[in-house]
Amino acid sequence: MTIEEIIDAQMLAFNNKDIKSMMPLYTDNTMIYNFQDHTPIINGKKECEEMFTTLFEQSPNLNAEIIKTIFFDNKAIVHEYVYGRNGNNEKKEQVVIFEIKNQKISRMDLIK
Q: What does the pLDDT look like over 91-111, one tens digit per residue?
């Protein structure tokens, strides 16, 4: 898969709240960080799956709308709106920097 296909598959799975399609896109040691202070939010695929599963259960109207994506080397920088998180339908703007290794997402940095 190309980096573009990986990000497209991830976004489709996210919007469909399809954890079974989403998790094969991540490495076993995937890390998710808060970009502002570089603190880890998620450490490993298991924590990542638990976080997404809980989010999907608590957010039946969850959806992400891409504003712009930049692909650079092994990174995808996705500027997006997310709404429906935990029942809040207000559009929240964020940027996610995905890092891809061996055709899987190995790191995400969140800017909110």
A: 999 999 999 999 999 999 999
Per-residue confidence (pLDDT) for residue 87, from 0 to 100: 86
Contact 65, 39 (CB under 8 A): no
The 10 Å Cβ neighbour count of residue 39 is 8
What's the CA gap between 76 and 22, in Å, rounded? Answer: 16
pTM: 0.95
SS3 assignment for the chain: CCHHHHHHHHHHHHHCCCHHHHHHHEEEEEEEEECCCCEEEEECHHHHHHHHHHHHHHCCCCEEEEEEEEEECCEEEEEEEEECECCECCCEEEEEEEEEECCEEEEEEEEC
Q: How far apart are CA 56 and CA 31, in angstroms?
A: 19
